[in-house]
Each structure stands twice: as structure tokens, then as C-alpha cells.
Amino acid sequence: MKSYKLIIIGSHSVGKTTLLNAYFGKATSVEYKPTLGFDIRSKLIKDGSRSIHLTIWDMGGQLLFSKFYDRLFKETNIIFLLYDITNPLSYHELQTVWMEEIKKRKLLKVPIIIIGNKIDLKEKRAVNPDEVQEYVKKHKLDYVETSALKGINVTTLFDEVINHL
User: Fold this and answer.
1) How many angstroms separate the Cα of 108 from the Cα of each of 18, 42, 77, 79, 111?
2) What pTM value is reported for the model?
3) Taking a C-beta distance cutoff of 8 angstroms, is the pair 76, 107 a contact?
4) CB-based contact 45:52 (threshold 8 Å)
5) At what angle do helices 16-23 and 154-163 cross, to 10 degrees?
6) What is the DSSP letter of 152?
7) For the chain, which has fewer Cβ within 10 Å, the N-terminal or C-terminal residue?
């Protein structure tokens, strides 16, 4: 059985824990409850003739948790980097804080998927999708939009990642 480590990072309140809860079939809520430190969950996945053990680390987005970053990024196989499509600061921090942390740890060769979350609030979109497309193209990253709260594209996102492992 192959084991993989996936980390979910991004600024606070972008929906990292909600994305994880949606994938694991847990109830989601619009009430914001910050992750203090990190949350680790595992899933055994049967994909045809192979078995995959996926360990998912959900890191609190507050920068005060940066002391955990070395532990978080160690032996990472996949990175989900979330921002909130209604919050331009979260997209700015994706580029200036989170991508810098990835570069500092020399993880640019690890598959990185940029996730624009909260598409259920598309009427409040404040991040230009063309700007995001230009950024992901320039940096050769994958991009998906989701609504973790409504479960839109969540299973598809994880299934696509698992298919490419």
C-alpha cells in the first residue's frame, strides 16, 4: 500500500476545514471556527487494484502557527492552497505568504493545486478569475474552484488527485 501526505494551507477562514469536512462527509457550517494548530485525518482509498493511504493535514491559517510549518511541510506529496474568491487579501496572501513558504522549503516540484473556494458566493466574487488563471499558468499550477460548504467539486477534486497518484 502506498502512503501519501496532502496538506491544506491558506489564510484563515478560506474554508480549509470545511473542505476537509465535506470530503469526509461531515456536517459543514457557515459558523467560523478556527483550526488551532493543525488537524490530521487519514483515509484508506481502494482504487481498482491498488490501495492508497492518504493522510491529510489541515493547517490553521493564522500566521502565529508558523512554528509548525517545518513539521507540516515535511515529506509532503501534494499541496492544496486555498483562497476565498470573496476575499482579495486571501488571494494576495496565497502569493506572498503561502507560495513563499513553499519556495523556502523547495517544494515547487510537489503537485500544487490552487483552490478558489466559496463559489456558492459568486455574486460577491472579489478576486478576478482571469488574474488567477494568469497566475496559475505562469507558475504551472493546477486550479479548481469549489464550494466546500455546498460540496461543489469537492469529491471531484480529491478523486482527480487520487487518480494521478
Assistant:
1) 26, 24, 11, 10, 8
2) 0.89
3) yes
4) yes
5) 80
6) B
7) N
Per-residue pLDDT in tens (0 to 9) along the chain, 165 residues: 899 999 999 998 999 999 999 999 875 555 555 554 567 899 999 878 889 999 999 877 555 455 666 777 889 999 999 999 999 999 999 999 999 989 988 888 999 999 999 999 999 999 999 999 999 999 999 999 999 999 999 999 999 888 888
Residue entry with cell 494548530? 37
Q: What cell was used for 114?
A: 490552487
CA distance linking residue 91 with residue 97, whole number of Å = 10
Enclosing H/E stretch for 8: strand 2-10
107 residue type, one letter: L
Cell of 16: 480549509
CA distance 157 to 29: 20
Place of cell 490501495: 51
Domains in the chain and their CATH numbers?
A: 2-163 (3.40.50.300)
Q: Supply φ then ψ for residue 112, to 5 degrees.
A: -120, 125
